[in-house]
Amino acid sequence: MSAPQSVDERNWLALHRMAERVVLRGEPEGDERCEGCTYYLDPDEALSYCWNPQLRILVGAGWWCRWWEHSPRVAG
User: Fold this and answer.
1) Coil, helix or strand for 60?
2) What pLDDT shows up at residue 17?
3) What is the residue-averaged pLDDT of the chain?
4) Do 36 and 76 contact (CB within 8 A), yes or no?
């Protein structure tokens, strides 16, 4: 296994700052999970792209962020 490179540190710092800004969490906020959000591209997948203009990254179905919006595609 090789040691982290400077690009790895820069990428980690950028992701860390973004996660703090968007309050991106690996656990849901109540029933608000990414899979039920209007920005979650494919709610049938465990990992999918979040196309929220503030985020735009790959996220897990059970994650949550502060821009969560109920999707009309999901019952409930």
Assistant:
1) strand
2) 82
3) 87
4) yes
Residue 37 to residue 24: CA distance in whole angstroms: 13
Residue with tokens 């690996």: 26
Transcribe 8-45 into DSSP letters.
Answer: HHHHHHHHHHHHHHHT-BSS-BTTB-GGGBTTBS-TTS
The two tokens of residue 27 are: 């656990």
pLDDT tens-digit map of 16-37: 887 777 677 888 888 999 999 9
Domain ranges of the chain: 6-60
Contact status, residue 71 vs residue 36, Cβ threshold 8 Å: yes
Task: Label residues 9-30 b or e (16+ Cβ within 10 Å = b).
Answer: eeeeeeeeeeeeebebeeebee
